[in-house]
Amino acid sequence: MSASPLKHNTYFDGQVQSIGFERHGRRASVGVIAPGEYHFGTEAPERMTILSGELAAKPEGGSWSQYPAGTVFEVAGKSGFDVRADRACAYLCEFL
Predict the structure, then answer these.
(1) By percentage, how much of the chain surpasses pLDDT 90?
(2) Is 15 exposed, middle or buried (0-12, 13-18, 19+ CB in 10 A)?
């Protein structure tokens, strides 16, 4: 029996959860962020696409911006970013 191509990730006591996968040789994850404020560190550059809801995001050294469903933001590798959700928000994270 082979290992599942899906990887379940849980962060912040279950407040952020995602399923990781590979598509066309690139890693990605799709997940949900519960209401709250969270900080993520990055190894590789990331592209975040908001699938439903709305997310406020602030890159290291930057300022807060709002991202409604259908919008995208990118984060540099070896950095970090803060996110804030007033309601549950779904996202797609692509590792660039």
Answers:
(1) 92
(2) middle
